């Protein structure tokens, strides 16, 4: 069956399904699910989708990464449209499956440049406060990739802007927050959004390797960002809030 999938032999696949649909659903379901996701082929997916649901394999995970079919679908790079991600979401795949590296489907969407699907995942209620084993939250990834629309969507959902990277594997970024990531992009729109558009005030005193965000801006000579953060800190000290 995997050879049929890899060769894009739609006629033979349809014949096999018609001959023994129970075998497809209950014996081959998981294998076929990940095979068709890998080849990123919509017609074959449409043939098999009802059997994935009937066989209860839609939320299966891979043995090597613990990721779901949605994780795999989203790993197609930005120039290759992950055409099966949205159909999987429409079928009702569990959005909150977390891989062995603590990555959500939202991490994958952002890592591979699929901002439109990232926004859809946020709107559909995916967990938005997961720190992966590399110390990255979904918000940090959105900021690093300068996906402004995703940052806004996360803030509108009430994302926790003060989650910290405490992983030993990322020593150079020890204890960074989303605001530290934002400073390093030198993107004023993102800084403004974090300071003013979220439901939670960022902790301006949080340190990354003993440096507050304003000190990182000063070190990098991002004068406009440094000025914004200095104003924000002064306003908070005066009880005004915001910038």
Automatic annotation (TrEMBL):
InterPro entries: Ankyrin_rpt, Ankyrin_rpt-contain_sf
Keyword Repeat found: yes
Pfam short name (any one): Ank
UniProt KW Endoplasmic reticulum keyword: no
Keyword terms of this UniProt record: ANK repeat, Repeat
Membrane spanning stretches: none
ANK repeat segments: 101-133, 134-166, 174-200
PANTHER family associated with the record: ANKYRIN REPEAT AND PROTEIN KINASE DOMAIN-CONTAINING PROTEIN (PTHR24198), ANKYRIN REPEAT-CONTAINING PROTEIN-RELATED (PTHR24198:SF165)
Protein name: Ankyrin
Source organism of this protein record: Penicillium angulare
